[in-house]
């Protein structure tokens, strides 16, 4: 018996990008006994079923990976750290010597600690000189990141959760916040309850629990939302809902190549008359107009979105256009008026986007392809000028394709499970099998099963480091437990690997404290400046929002407006990511998805999360309460579809798509829309990604997990 709770410790939930503050009750025997929401954190004590069962997840010690494993004669066998790290070093050194630095890669995660992602990125890009560093945020938020960068010149949102308490209209598009960001959804409902004039519009092909609470639900057909946004803009233009003064002072227009005029923008919108686009959207022109009035007429409108518009072949365009709707109506930079992309993972913002741990970027919004940006980082990292590779590395899908093509010989994968989470997964698994894969995880996964070396990693409060979420808030997780067996933190693994590869002096920050100190100083050379966010402050405070340039700075709730330390004195708004301080409104033309339904593939398949499971289920499927809530994953369809195909609940069907086929068990639910099927991706025994299309956005390279055309027949 580990005894009752002896002490409570402030921490952050392990799972999602809401970044809820939690209080962890530890026993004398150093066991996590209880979890509750932190009343003083931004979530005001509210947490969801996943967060409240963190103790049960951590209690799964018997199933944890505890010793390194090496594949010998086709089977993974236990080995010592010395053996595993020696073999890994030998393989990486061999590949670099024989095939060059671009034959190795790092594939990371928006759930690694910031200190870990920063170190891996620095080692591969600044040390080995390959930009083959990417990770699962590519599957998640790349479109939001590229969208912000194109519109404002800098990634990360202008607003914050606090805006929920001031908004008069919530525009939720491609977000099932009820299930995926429950404390934020609850905050919106509280706002609505206290102020009955507050309205909520939900754009979603599915009748989700979020949509059930909407004042206006627009069930658009999968893949068509850009038509809706442009038609709403058309309506706003025709009804004088544009804020011409804000536009004049703070906005430029662009067709993507050249600067164009406000008049050109208006002409562009003429193609998107509601009556014209309504049939393709599958909703009425009246509802399009209604949505436009609600958005435009409210005193303050806040848009919130996630994967429904990020995971799309026009994900970047959708993000641009949504940002544009705020700019042209002046619904920005005021309390309650802002676009706010909700984060999927706990540390995709702070850990990956801000540290520049994707194949085309380097820390703090710098681009690999820009010589002056590389030169800045070379100087900061103390490496010779022009020594970094100018060539962007492989983005996630290109990386796995390079494995199929045997161009990438060795890869280190940390804290992610791409053999389950990648689209068209059976194809990319062939590449993973061909490559010398080193996988660090806490449990056995579909990816560790393909590894040549498996490294047991420390989990959550078994290590220390910073998570950064949606609203530019950095929060600290302190170490409260020792990892089981021989498991080590990903940072320890990276530091050891760096030393063995001959980069011990370059990766000189070796502990979380040292890395944070280095990284904090690196940030001071940028507009992401968080030099004032020290561990000392984070131990006391409930997170801090950057920019935060000095230790006496309170952090910044709203960017690009008065109160942001980078907005020049005397200016009300200033989009300093752009040379002239003006944000860009793009003219973005709608293109139909290649996965549009046909006679051959007459149904849409859309995929995503459910409230009680986290991503590939490795952590949450081990918790009884969560399993009994979700059950095994199934193919969910509307009763009309089921009766048309004469299918019953529990029946096995064959799902066929252009890229593959699989069997599935049918579940019938009124929450789906006729013609649109839903499947979650947590359950490895129902690997839905076997049929999901790997079409992707040409700018963000994010896969379009949300739109696949399929046919369903009795198995
Ligand atoms: P996770 O289950 O989050 O899935 O896909 P993945 O990242 O592949 O994987 C995290 C892994 O890290 C788990 O295996 C866990 O056991 C391990 N882990 C936990 N803590 C640690 C640690 O501290 N160190 C190490 N080394 N390992 C640790 C997520 C991806 O899936 C994402 S982000 C999105 S948004 C996509 N969404 C999506 C979708 O909507 N539909 C479909 N069909 N597929 C999708 N795939 C994508
Ligand atoms: Fe954790 Fe996200 Fe649930 Fe909050 S909403 S408790 S961060 S899983």
Automatic annotation (TrEMBL):
Domain of life: Bacteria
Domain 4Fe-4S Mo/W bis-MGD-type intervals: 6-62
PROSITE patterns: 4FE4S_MOW_BIS_MGD, MOLYBDOPTERIN_PROK_1, TAT
Alphabetical list of SMART domains matching this protein: Molybdop_Fe4S4
Acetylation listed as a keyword: no
Keywords assigned: 4Fe-4S, Iron, Iron-sulfur, Membrane, Metal-binding, Molybdenum, Nitrate assimilation, Oxidoreductase, Signal, Transmembrane, Transmembrane helix
UniProt record similarity statement: Belongs to the prokaryotic molybdopterin-containing oxidoreductase family. NasA/NapA/NarB subfamily.
Database matches in InterPro entries: Asp_de-COase-like_dom_sf, CT_Nitrate-R-NapA-like, MoPterin_dinucl-bd_dom, Mopterin_OxRdtase, Mopterin_OxRdtase_4Fe-4S_dom, MopterinOxRdtase_cofactor_BS, Prok_molybdopt-oxidoreductase, TAT_signal
Protein name: Nitrate reductase
Keyword field contains 4Fe-4S: yes
Cofactors named for this entry: Mo-bis(molybdopterin guanine dinucleotide); [4Fe-4S] cluster
